[in-house]
Design brief:
The chain is of the alpha/beta class. The chain contains 10 helices and 9 strands. The protein has a 3-stranded antiparallel sheet. A two-stranded antiparallel ribbon has the order 1-2. It has a two-stranded parallel ribbon with strand order 3-5. Helix 2 crosses helix 3. The longest helix has 19 residues. The protein is globular and about 50 Å long. The C terminus is likely disordered.
């Protein structure tokens, strides 16, 4: 019998998979703009042990570990240049050259640690459409707002409907007290709000305003009533995006982890969002 500590209840509990005989594991992978370090080795080894142990117990395990290949900003204030874009600029390379080089080196380092590869290794850049729908759903529920072309989570508004901070054990008052005032936060209503979508420098904000107005990216599947990204294909804005402009889509590690929890509470589908180990 396997017992695992539950961060929500604060107790060790007997492990019971949602689907008998099957286990899903999602583990934050690296942002590939530099070589791996001890911070990458720790989760790789920790979850490799868990992966192997669950497999030895007879479970069919789907182990997903992402590669963040776009959109990890430099600073805690949801500001600064994309780390991969900056590395590419300094080295006079294409961003995807940087991504491929350090992804290969990361895999080599993981092999040296003798950890098993994941079942699936999605890249953040391969899930842009889902992420757009993800942000749109949060906007539609009123838990986010648009400011100067970027989208921010409205923490205070969300906390009125849901117990924000329940997983971390902190309430909103604690967060307000402990939040640092950093430069580059002028766009936010409150310093503790966090970015869901950042406008790339030099781009116009009209596209994000269209997203907020729901005219371009919101669609209902007539049969199932579920979110559909098909409208993306018909959107003039979407078709005109370049690979460089995809930098709009992601944000910092902490933001992505928070936004995943928000979407789960809000009833939106928790797509892979690319949270990382820095």
């Amino acid at each position: 019998m396997l017992e695992i500590y539950n961060s929500l209840t604060r107790f060790k509990e007997t492990f019971k998979p949602l689907h008998p005989g099957h286990v899903g594991m999602y583990v934050c992978g690296p942002t590939v703009y530099g070589d791996a370090h001890l911070g990458h080795a720790r989760p790789a080894i920790t979850f490799d042990i868990l992966f192997r142990y669950l497999t030895s117990l007879g479970y069919k395990v789907r182990y997903v570990r992402n590669i963040t290949d776009v959109g990890h900003l430099e600073h805690d204030a949801d500001a600064g240049e994309d780390k991969i874009a900056k590395k590419a600029r300094l080295e006079q390379l294409e961003p995807m050259e940087v991504v491929q080089f350090f992804t290969n080196r990361y895999h080599h380092d993981m092999e040296a640690l003798n950890v098993l590869p994941p079942s699936i290794e999605p890249h953040a850049s391969g899930h842009i459409i889902e992420q757009i729908a993800f942000v749109q759903a949060i906007l539609d529920k009123g838990y986010a707002y648009v400011s100067n072309g970027s989208v921010y989570m409205d923490v205070e508004r969300y906390a009125k409907d849901y117990p924000y901070g329940k997983l971390s054990g902190r309430n909103l008052n604690d967060i307000v007290t402990d939040t640092r005032e950093l430069d580059g936060q002028e766009e936010k209503k409150h310093s503790y709000d966090f970015a869901l979508w950042k406008k790339a420098a030099g781009l116009q904000s009209s596209a994000i305003r269209r997203m907020a107005s729901r005219r371009y990216l919101r669609a209902k599947d007539s049969r199932a009533g579920t979110w559909s990204a098909r409208l993306w294909e018909r959107s003039t804005w979407a078709r005109s995006l370049t690979s460089t402009e995809v930098v709009w889509i992601l944000c910092s590690r902490t933001t992505r982890q928070k936004s995943l929890r928000v979407a789960q509470h809000s009833g939106t589908k928790p797509y892979i969002t690319g949270c990382t180990t820095t």
